[in-house]
Design a protein that fits this description.
Strand content of chain A: 25-35%
Oligomer: heterodimer
Strand content of chain B: 25-35%
Largest sheet of chain A: 6 strands, mixed
Number of strands of chain A: 8
Strand order of the largest sheet of chain B: 6-5-8-7
Order of helices and strands of chain A: EEHEEHHEEHEE
Mean pLDDT of chain A: 85
Distance between the termini of chain A: 63 Å
Order of helices and strands of chain B: HHEEEEHHEEEE
Shape of chain A: rod-shaped
Radius of gyration of chain A: 29 Å
Strand order of the largest sheet of chain A: 3-4-7-8-5-6
Chain lengths: 162, 174
């Protein structure tokens, strides 16, 4: 094919086809980048939403009537801690649509300590991958009140996953 | 071989394509960096919540036994809350001749151990308390504060004392 170049501009197969290829490649890269950005944004929104849900659940546990001593938020009654099982805690939150593990660790220097774990177990379809993907851990502190003269400090670890 | 000439009056379509490509690349890079997730406010909220609940819990907690020496006598303080012990410590430091070393060993060390036990391993803390009369106490499990420090302050209510007392807890991760 003959190539013509004159004073008025440039035309020809060897000029236009590479130019077209560059434009197509540039457009594809830009579109891929935009798609990736939208995907990340959506994922981030879902992530934040679930984190909010996890925080609300953790605060709910800390303020649960089934655990509180004289309705004081953040102060658990030692006898209620011992008496409450996982089923009742799950029921008190209207059977939430996520799995959880709540670990209460008494860190006092008293001889009798009150440690407890409540959980809603995942079913058999739940894989290790999904465990890591949607997992949130909220760390809080609470008191365990044995009586008005004996109030233990405790760690409350709330682990939630979709 | 034929010589190719480029004139001033015309413009190569290849040059246009290259300019378009460069702009597309710059736009792609901007998109890639603009959408990189930063530290979300929720994560900040989690830290703040941790700091607030930890100070509140700590101040309400009781210690089964603390003591200090004064005039060759041991004063026992059993089942006192952290608030009561901090106020007592500051009062003794500011208003009485009780030796600071006795207070550090008998009251402040157990106070620090309790806060250390309450703190999760990934967190560091610095606890300070002071009175309006310039008495001051402080303990920490790490000398250098991190970049994102959560600071929580609470007044200690002590109707039986004339001075006002304040406690502050700073927590951070590294």
């Amino acid at each position: 094919m003959r190539r013509e170049i004159d004073d008025e501009g440039v035309i020809g197969f060897y000029e236009d086809v590479p130019a077209l290829l560059i434009v197509v490649v540039g457009t594809l890269i830009f579109l891929a980048s935009m798609y990736s950005a939208i995907e990340r944004h959506d994922e981030s929104s879902t992530h934040s939403e679930f984190e909010r849900e996890a925080i609300e659940f953790a605060e709910g546990v800390r303020a649960s009537e089934r655990l509180l001593y004289k309705d004081r938020i953040g102060q658990f009654d030692a006898s209620k801690v011992e008496g409450l099982n996982s089923e009742n805690l799950t029921r008190s939150f209207n059977n939430p649509d996520f799995y959880y593990k709540v670990t209460l660790t008494d860190v006092s220097n008293y001889s009798v300590r009150y440690n407890k774990t409540w959980r809603k177990e995942p079913d058999s379809n739940f894989t290790e991958e999904s465990y890591e993907k949607g997992r949130k851990v909220i760390l809080l502190s609470v008191n365990i009140v044995v009586d008005s003269d004996e109030i233990h400090p405790a760690r409350l670890r709330v682990e939630v996953w979709e | 071989m034929k010589r190719i000439k480029y004139s001033d009056s015309g413009q190569s379509s290849l040059l246009d394509a290259l300019i378009f490509f460069a702009i597309a690349m710059i736009a792609s890079l901007i998109l890639a960096f603009a959408s990189t997730p930063q530290s979300s406010p929720e994560s900040e909220e989690m830290k703040r919540l941790y700091g607030e609940t930890t100070l509140e819990t700590y101040l309400h907690s009781t210690l089964n036994h603390t003591s200090y020496e004064h005039d060759n006598e041991t004063i026992h303080l059993d089942d006192k809350t952290v608030t009561e012990l901090v106020v007592e410590d500051l009062y003794l430091r500011g208003q009485t001749p009780v030796e600071n070393e006795s207070l550090e060993k008998g009251i402040e060390r157990p106070l620090n151990e309790t806060l250390q036990n309450l703190t999760y391993p990934q967190y560091y803390y610095n606890f300070t308390a002071w009175s309006s009369g310039d008495a001051y106490l402080s303990f920490s499990n790490h000398g250098i504060e991190g970049d994102e420090v959560i600071s929580v302050t609470q007044d200690l209510h002590t109707p039986e004392k004339n001075e006002t007392y304040t406690a502050n807890l700073k927590v951070w991760t590294i």
